[in-house]
Amino acid sequence: MNMKNKLVAEILALPLEERVDLVEAIWDSISCVPDALALTEWQKEELDRRLAEYESDPDAGSSLEEVFARVRRAS
To answer: Is residue 48 located within the same domain as residue 27?
Structure first.
């Protein structure tokens, strides 16, 4: 078994909560350097489209509290 496979096996053997903590730590390390991952042209266009949509009607959509309330009701 190579080192990568061994590491993956060790990670998968961790309890779920520890794996979630690990994922969060990995994501935090990635988000610290946002310029390290370039956006594709499609992603840039989609972000521009969403920003324009928001700017044309900032009151459209739902607040975070409304979204959480819907999720809780659906559970």
So the answer is: no
Report whether 39 contacts 47 (CB < 8 A): yes
> Which residues lie below 8 Å from residue 30, measured CB to CB, with a gap of 6+?
36, 37
Residue range 64-74, pLDDT digits in tens: 999 999 999 99
Query: Is residue 26 located within the same domain as residue 50?
Result: no
The reported pTM is: 0.51
- The residue type found at 26 is I
The total number of structural domains that make up the chain: 2
Clarify whether residues 17 and 27 are in a common domain.
Answer: yes
Pairwise CA distance, residues 53 & 31, whole Å: 25
